[in-house]
Amino acid sequence: MSLARKIILIAGLSLILAGVTFMIIKSEMGANEAILPSSEDSATTTNEDGCAVDQISAGLDHYLVLKDDGTVWAWGDNSEGQLGTSNLLSQANPTQITPLKNIKLIDAGNKFSLALSSEGTLWVWGQNASGNIEGEEKKYLTPVKINITDVVDAAVGETFTLAVKGDGSVWILGKYDGNGSSVLREILGLTNIKAVSANSTPLFLTNSGEVWEWKPGTTVKKIQGLSDVAYIEGANDEVSLAVKSDKTVWGWGRNSFGELALAEKDFATDIPVQIKGLDGVTKISVGANFISALTSDNSVLAWGISDFKNNDKSITTPTKLDYAGEVRDIDAGPQGLICIKTDDTIWTNSVLQNNPRQAKFTQENCQ
């Protein structure tokens, strides 16, 4: 969900694979090609075929899906083993990850992935160049069980993994703020934490609805002027956000691409400001200098940069995206937005262009 600022859609070459059209997408950093669904996809995923989807997560160049039976499925680029399929073959269609079962939470990141079980077991796999997985700094092609128990929430950052234990303590694996290792260590100064979120900068939510932040070069600190928070979304390089219990959205950081829904692009603040033009928000997600919001009436709105090739083209007012139906979950990634509609179909939306396209999730893969 992070690392999105350096991703540019530079190739629009399509190919036919397994009867479905896919787009070739490359990063400007020379990363391997990733197979992602194009606008011509037409498969369906419904409750009738046993493919009810609970969660979706968008990584740098791969996707994770959590089904209602607790299984995890992945597709996209697999150059670092981030799909967890025991090989390095990229997948055009969702492929089940074993031995994962009874999973309640998933998170896809910078060529590595995370899953948390209902029993509090934490699994991580894929790239480990920064020590974000316990063990040697190598590619892990299948899920690795992390040596921590009673985990109630977890998240991946750009180069690190976060875990919250039932006692309210927070633990980190990997590199952050210039140091780190593949040894679990507790983040000091945090207590009574119930949830974490991490892109470039970690956020921490307490049981009492307060938010704490850990910026590079500093210690953890409480965000002033913010209380009664129900949901947090960790910062990219620009902005952090929170949804309060009254379903209003608040943000802080820089407004370089209109992420704070303000016209003044040089505006920056450490004090949260309310994002105007939103009502009844239940979830927010930070992408490549754009923000998306899901509302209680199952609508999706987005704002911020709308064109990677033209950074001056920004939408500073939350704008509704037309998905020709209701949406019940969202996640923002480098290439854009991915959604689960109420009929359990999975759709992607390229950046903020209003062109939703359906992802391939075949019935035979859901058995």
TrEMBL record:
- For this protein, the parts annotated as crossing the membrane are 7-25
Q: Which GO terms describe its cellular component?
A: cytoplasm
The family database entries (Pfam families) matched by this protein are listed as: RCC1, RCC1_2
One function term, GO molecular function aspect: guanyl-nucleotide exchange factor activity
Report keywords, A-Z: Membrane, Transmembrane, Transmembrane helix
Protein name in the entry: Uncharacterized protein
- Which organism encodes this protein? Candidatus Berkelbacteria bacterium RIFOXYA2_FULL_43_10
